[in-house]
Write a structure and sequence with these properties.
Layout lengths: L1 H19 L11 H4 L2 E12 L2 E14 L4 E12 L5 E13 L4 E12 L4 E10 L4 E12 L2 E10 L6 E11 L2 E3 L23
Antiparallel strand pairs: 1-2, 2-3, 3-4, 4-5, 5-6, 6-7, 7-8, 8-9, 9-10
Length: about 200
């Protein structure tokens, strides 16, 4: 009987050891790595226009394609600069694409742009044109700051969002004044009554 309990005890210990043994970690694999010409980890590079630095971009991973003219980026962090070299705004996104032929960067998935003076813009996708030093999107967006909130579908703006043009569906509020998109036909012009005649009545 004593031998039986000893065997059961050893069997329980062995089973517990098998269950608690940790499996070796497996690294996540991106399908981009299979077709990329080159892969770079901890990538850092500048976007310039005629020798002037417009943005500094960092990414966890960069996959190079099309003879190294196109990069697919993961976990993007881009810093924009003014013509004087001062920090202007910061962009973050989960994915991104840069193309040296078009001089554009496209940010995708949870795109957030924060200016140095507190404006914050969120959108699913955004294009940065380094020659124009312009950010734009055809997607829905929301921009907030301490005294204002704007939203709509599509915009054009400088990176710090001081001058923003909303393409359609603009709505929001500013210091207690609210606006909303116009639904249906625009209101007609008010009717104008004829001026009274100067001829005296008989």
């Amino acid at each position: 009987m004593r031998a039986y309990f000893s065997m059961v005890f050893l069997g329980v210990v062995a089973l517990t050891a098998c269950e608690t043994k940790k499996q070796p970690p497996t690294a996540s694999h991106s399908p981009l790595a299979d077709s990329a010409d080159q892969v770079m980890y901890g990538a850092k590079f500048n976007l310039t226009d005629q020798g002037l630095q417009r943005a500094h971009v960092e990414a966890d991973t960069a996959y190079f394609f099309d003879e190294n003219t196109r990069m697919e980026l993961q976990n993007v962090h881009a810093t924009f600069f003014t013509v004087t070299g001062a920090k202007d705004a910061v962009l973050t996104s989960q994915r991104g694409t840069t193309n040296s032929r078009t001089n554009n960067m496209i940010a995708r998935r949870n795109v957030v742009v924060v200016s140095e003076d507190g404006r914050r813009l969120t959108t699913p996708e955004l294009i940065y044109n380094q020659q124009k030093n312009e950010i734009s999107s055809d997607s829905a967006f929301v921009m907030t700051e301490p005294n204002r909130r704007l939203e709509g579908i599509g915009f054009r703006s400088d990176p710090n969002m001081k001058n923003i043009q909303i393409l359609k569906g603009a709505s929001g509020f500013a210091r207690g004044v609210s606006t909303s998109p116009i639904v249906g036909p625009a209101p007609s012009s008010p009717s104008v009554a004829p001026a009274p005649s100067s001829t005296p009545k008989r």
